[in-house]
């Protein structure tokens, strides 16, 4: 590739190029920023995300490819990039004050966050299994470091080690699956894989096993059962600001890869893979919601909640091979990821506001359900934001969670899987128990909750909660945007 071709390709992926360069420069600039003024690094990181977001939006509607078709710039990549960049902005907002009071404020925190977002954006745009793997590692390695950034806290170090070991294990599955797919089809490009499959002459057994191993590798990233074992311990042990970002960004990136790979490359394998996807979705919804009932720690409860929501999104992937509903499959999953992003940050901002620091002499760490007693009387704004988040997680109107689940269930029923839709509906009813339990503690139990009066946490909690309610009223334009985002994917 000539220098001119390289420049042309870098221009085609300008938002990713700018954000990568920004992160590299910020890593150097941070060396000259005094420790007590690391807020400048956070501000510069947020500015980089805003610039990238403006570039992404300005290129909406563009459909092209770069680097010999390894990267696809289309509506799908644009939609997912918007989710990732907003997640980054919210991640910085919830982290700023939290890092200061926790004594772990480091400029490299924001640099690592930017590099992880670059990996997520590449993962959504990747049209080749090799590129998916490179993007997967780029988004994962910074998260491994961020999970353990609260050294010398043992729980943070344990979370980083568990996340790293199981993440490396998942990458091995993905690579082995990629090797088998290449051996069966002679290519790692998604479009060439489906062409080789439909034309015949491929080793179908190798291809199905390879697709299954890729599903396992990405299943670890999105935390579907039985590949969810790392999630509760990592979510609990990692700094809460990292957990908030990880819960949204890593999951959304994993599903971006799953959607593009399966819808673009593996439709001919739908008969073999659909029963597996059905079982993964069903068991993930059931186990995630049932185990969440027993949790008294709010971070572990939200961890199992995250697992359950992975099951709901996986439910949309089940009818992926049916051409008549494939577009709705992707659109409903994209819409639900947007709803999940806003809802999650509303909940996690409140969790971080109530969390206590180690060594403060308090009897609790602010992360048990009992610590939410009386929040409705002492901090009505935060309690209202948490209530909105809990209702949205259940799927109660008027919230984006309700609209998202409606689209998911409609897609599954139209795809011919009413039994799976019934499981999704019943598990949502089960989830109402542990979500509404938080609301009961906030409004119907007496207590003296100690809440951090930190402006960025308040702003994030209230802004996302308002977005969850207001955008549910204007959900049709959002779903139409998600539907248009898949036109170049299908």
Account of the 3D structure:
The protein has helices at 3-12, 14-29, 39-58, 75-102, 107-125, 129-147, 154-185, 190-199, 204-222, 231-237, 240-265, 270-292, 298-317, 323-354, 375-378, 380-394, 400-414, 418-444, 455-473, 475-484; strands spanning 64-66, 71-73. By secondary structure, it is mainly α. Strand 1 and strand 2 form a beta hairpin. It has a domain at 269-490. It contains 20 helices and two strands. A two-stranded antiparallel ribbon has the order 1-2.
> How would you sum up the global shape?
globular
Class by helix and strand content?
A: mainly alpha
State the total count of DSSP E strands: 2
| Mean pLDDT over the residues | 86
| Beta strand % | under 5%
Distance, first to last CA: 29 Å
Order of helices and strands: HHHEEHHHHHHHHHHHHHHHHH
Strand arrangement, major sheet: 1-2
Identify low-pLDDT runs.
none
Our count of helices gives: 20
Radius of gyration: 22 Å
Helix proportion range: over 70%
Report on the biggest sheet. Answer: 2 strands, antiparallel
Features:
globular, 76% helix, 490 residues, two-stranded antiparallel sheet, mainly alpha, single chain, 1% strand
């Amino acid at each position: 590739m000539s220098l001119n071709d390289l420049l042309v390709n870098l221009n085609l992926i300008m938002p990713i190029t700018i954000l990568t360069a920004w992160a590299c420069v910020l890593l150097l600039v941070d060396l000259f920023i005094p420790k007590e003024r690391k807020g400048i690094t956070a501000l510069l990181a947020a500015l980089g995300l805003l610039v990238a977001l403006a570039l992404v939006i300005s290129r909406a509607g563009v459909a092209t490819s770069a680097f010999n078709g390894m990267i696809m710039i289309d509506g799908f990549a644009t939609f997912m990039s918007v989710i990732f960049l907003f997640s980054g902005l919210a991640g910085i907002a919830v982290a700023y004050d939290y890092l200061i009071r926790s004594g772990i404020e480091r400029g490299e925190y924001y640099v690592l966050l930017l590099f992880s977002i670059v990996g997520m954006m590449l993962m959504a745009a990747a049209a080749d299994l090799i590129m998916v793997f490179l993007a997967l590692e780029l988004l994962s390695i910074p998260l491994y470091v961020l999970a353990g950034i609260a050294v010398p806290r043992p729980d943070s170090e344990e979370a980083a080690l568990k996340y790293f070991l199981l993440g490396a294990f998942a990458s091995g599955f993905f690579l082995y699956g990629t090797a088998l797919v290449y051996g069966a089809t002679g290519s790692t490009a998604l479009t060439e894989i489906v062409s080789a499959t439909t034309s015949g002459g491929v080793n179908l057994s190798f291809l199905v096993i390879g697709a299954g191993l890729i599903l396992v590798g990405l299943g670890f990233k999105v935390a579907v059962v039985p590949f969810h074992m790392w999630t509760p311990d990592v979510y609990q042990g990692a700094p809460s600001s990292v957990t908030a970002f990880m819960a949204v960004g890593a999951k959304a990136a994993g599903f971006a890869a799953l959607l593009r790979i399966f819808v673009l490359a593996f439709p001919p394998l739908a008969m073999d893979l659909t029963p597996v996807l059905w079982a993964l979705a069903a068991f993930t919804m059931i186990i995630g919601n049932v185990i969440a009932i027993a949790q008294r720690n709010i971070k572990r409860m939200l961890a199992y909640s995250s697992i359950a929501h992975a099951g709901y999104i996986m439910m949309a992937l089940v009818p992926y091979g049916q051409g008549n509903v494939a577009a709705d499959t992707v659109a409903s999953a994209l819409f639900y990821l947007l709803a999940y992003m806003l809802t999650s940050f509303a909940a996690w901002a409140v969790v971080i506001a109530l969390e206590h620091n180690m060594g403060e002499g308090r009897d609790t760490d602010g992360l048990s359900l009992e610590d939410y007693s009386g929040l409705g009387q002492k901090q009505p704004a935060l309690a209202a934001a948490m209530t909105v988040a809990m209702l949205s997680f259940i799927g109660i109107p008027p919230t984006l969670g309700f609209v998202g689940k409606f689209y998911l269930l409609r897609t599954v029923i139209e795809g011919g899987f009413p039994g799976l839709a019934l499981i999704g509906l019943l598990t949502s009813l089960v989830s109402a128990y542990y979500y509404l339990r938080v609301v009961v503690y906030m409004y119907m139990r007496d207590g003296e909750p100690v809440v951090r009066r930190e402006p960025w946490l308040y702003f994030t909690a209230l802004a996302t909660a308002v977005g969850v309610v207001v955008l549910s009223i204007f959900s049709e334009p959002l779903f139409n945007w998600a539907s248009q985002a898949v036109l170049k994917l299908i």
